[in-house]
Write a structure and sequence with these properties.
The chain is of the alpha/beta class and 388 residues long. It has 2 domains: 2-149, 3-Layer(aba) Sandwich (Rossmann fold), CATH 3.40.50.720; 163-265 and 304-387, Rna Polymerase Sigma Factor, Chain: A (Orthogonal Bundle), CATH 1.10.1740.10. Helices cover 46% and strands 15% of the residues. It contains 16 helices and 11 strands. Strands 4-3-2-1-5-6-7 form a 7-stranded parallel β-sheet, sandwiched between helices. A 4-stranded mixed β-sheet has the order 9-8-10-11, covered by helices on one side. Helix 3 links the parallel strand 3 and strand 4 (78-81). The longest helix has 22 residues, at 366-387. The radius of gyration is 20 Å and the shape is globular. The structure holds NADPH dihydro-nicotinamide-adenine-dinucleotide phosphate and magnesium ion. Magnesium ion (MG) binds at residues 151-153, 222.
Length: 388
C-alpha cells in the first residue's frame, strides 16, 4: 500500500493524478490519498474529500476555510488552511510520496520540506527547480528522497536512461509542440489575444503553463529542470520543435544510439510512471496509433521569435540568482497578461527589464531565493503599473 499526499489536487495535474490513483486501485496497486490541497476551489476539494476520504485537506486561501469546513462537516476529514496548513501536512509522517502539483513559486517550500523529511517527490512543479535547483540538489544529497519528474519530457528522459550509465549520455533533446503561435510571424505577436494564447494545440493544462507554452518560456524552464534532474550540462541539452507532441523527448548516447519515448499527449502516463517508478502498471489510458498519425515532423526553434526561450538560455549562462528572477518576473508578467493588464509582447519585455535591473548574488539559501523572487515580482508589477 502506498500512502500519498496530492498538493494542488484540484488543478489539471492534481485531477489527472487522482484519475491515475483510481486506475492503480483498479489494477491491484493500492494507493491511499491521505492529504489533498487547493487554493480556492472549495466545491471540487469537497467532492474529492467525499471520494478519497483523506485524513486532512488544506485550503490555501484563508477566506475559503469556513466554507470548506461547512461542506466537509461529518466527512471525518480535518480541515486546515494557508501556508501553515501546507507546512503542517508536509511534515507529517504517514505518507511516503508527495505529488507536488502546485503552480509557480508556491511549490518551492513543500518540495524543500518533503526532501528534509525524506519523502519521495513526484514533481510537476518545475518552477521550484528553476528557482532553486542548486539548493534542491544540495538538500537531495543528504536525503533518501527520490525526485521523480512528472513533466512529460523529463519522464521520457527518465524512461530512456533506465539501465544506462549517465556518463554515456551525449545529448538530451527536449521536444516542444511550438504552442499556438508556431506559424505566426513575429509582427503578429503584438496583436495576439488572451483567448488565442490559451488555445494550446495538443495539451489541456492550467492557465499559467498554457501561457508559458505559448511564449516557449515553458521549454526554457524545462532545460533548467533537465539540468538539475539529470546533471547534464546545458550545452548538451537542445530543443526541437515537434508539433504532434508524440515523441516526448530523446537521449543520444556516446555510441551514436538515440532512444526516445513516445505516447499520446496525456499526462496520466508520466504521472503514473512517477507514482509506480520503477514498476509499470496496467492502464486503460488512450493508446498510440502511429499508422493513423502518418507523419511526425520536426523543426528548429526560432529564438528570434520566441524571446523567452532565448532569455532562458542567457540566464542559465549567468547563473546565480538570475534563474530566480527569470521565474518570478515571468510569473508576475503571466499573471498580468491573464488579467488583461498587459500585451503578450510585454511578457518578454518585462522579464528582460527585471533581469537587467537585478543585482545578482551567488549565495543561494532559501532566504535569498525568496528575497530575489519577491524583488522580481514587485519590479514587474510596479513597471507595468507605471507603463499603463
Ligand atoms: P493548475 O492551475 O491547473 O492547478 C494548480 C493547483 O494548485 C490547483 O489545485 C490550485 O488550486 C493550486 N494553487 C494555485 N495557486 C496556489 C497557491 N498560491 N497556493 C496553494 N495552492 C495553489 O496548474 P497545472 O496543474 O496545470 O500545473 C501545476 C504544475 O504542473 C505547474 O508547475 C506546471 O508547470 C506543471 N505541469 C503541468 C502540466 C499540465 O499538463 N497541466 C504538464 C507539465 C507540468 P485551485 O484549483 O483552488 O485554484
Ligand atoms: Mg513539459
Amino acid at each position: 500500500m502506498k500512502n500519498i499526499a496530492v498538493l494542488g489536487s484540484t488543478g489539471s495535474i492534481g485531477r489527472n493524478t487522482l484519475e491515475v490513483v483510481r486506475n492503480l486501485n483498479r489494477n491491484n496497486y493500492p494507493v491511499t490519498v491521505n492529504y489533498i490541497s487547493a487554493n480556492s476551489n472549495v466545491d471540487l476539494l469537497c467532492e474529492q474529500i467525499k471520494e478519497f476520504k483523506p485524513k486532512a485537506a488544506v485550503i490555501f486561501r484563508e477566506d475559503c476555510y469556513k466554507r470548506l469546513k461547512e461542506c466537509s462537516l461529518n466527512l471525518g476529514c480535518e480541515v486546515l488552511s494557508g501556508q501553515e496548513g501546507i507546512n503542517d501536512i508536509s511534515s507529517r509522517d504517514d505518507f511516503e510520496l508527495v505529488v507536488n502539483a502546485l503552480v509557480g513559486f508556491s511549490g518551492l517550500i513543500p518540495t524543500v520540506k518533503a526532501i528534509k523529511n525524506g519523502k519521495d517527490v513526484a514533481l510537476a512543479n518545475k518552477e521550484s527547480l528553476v528557482a532553486a535547483g542548486q539548493l534542491i540538489n544540495f538538500l537531495l544529497k543528504g536525503s533518501k528522497t527520490r525526485l521523480l519528474p512528472i513533466d512529460s519530457e523529463h519522464s521520457a528522459i527518465l524512461q530512456c536512461i533506465q539501465g544506462e550509465p549517465l556518463n554515456k549520455i551525449r545529448k538530451l533533446t527536449l521536444t516542444a509542440s511550438g504552442g499556438p503561435f508556431r506559424e505566426y510571424s513575429k509582427d503578429l505577436f503584438e496583436h495576439v489575444t488572451l483567448e488565442e494564447a490559451l488555445k494550446h494545440p495538443n495539451w489541456k493544462m492550467g492557465n499559467k503553463i498554457t501561457i508559458d507554452s505559448a511564449t516557449l518560456m515553458n521549454k526554457g524552464f524545462e532545460i533548467i529542470e533537465a539540468k538539475w534532474l539529470f546533471g547534464i550540462e546545458v550545452k548538451n541539452i537542445e530543443v526541437l520543435i515537434h508539433p504532434q507532441s508524440v515523441i516526448h523527448s530523446l537521449v543520444e548516447f556516446t555510441d551514436g544510439s538515440v532512444k526516445a519515448q513516445l505516447g499520446v499527449p496525456d499526462m496520466k502516463v508520466p504521472i503514473q510512471y512517477a507514482l509506480t517508478y520503477p514498476e509499470r502498471v496496467e492502464s486503460d489510458f488512450p493508446r498510440l496509433d502511429l499508422a493513423l498519425l502518418k507523419h511526425l515532423t520536426f523543426e528548429e526553434p526560432d529564438f528570434d521569435k520566441f524571446e523567452c526561450l532565448k532569455l532562458a538560455y542567457e540566464v542559465i549562462k549567468l547563473g546565480g540568482s538570475y534563474p530566480v528572477v527569470l521565474n518570478g518576473s515571468n510569473e508576475a508578467a503571466v499573471d498580468l497578461f491573464l488579467n488583461r493588464k498587459i500585451k503578450f509582447t510585454d511578457i518578454p519585455y518585462l522579464i528582460k527589464s527585471a533581469l537587467e535591473k537585478h543585482d545578482n548574488h551567488n549565495k543561494l539559501d532559501l532566504e535569498n531565493i525568496i528575497e530575489a523572487d519577491t524583488w522580481s515580482r514587485r519590479f514587474v508589477y510596479e513597471s507595468a503599473s507605471v507603463a499603463t
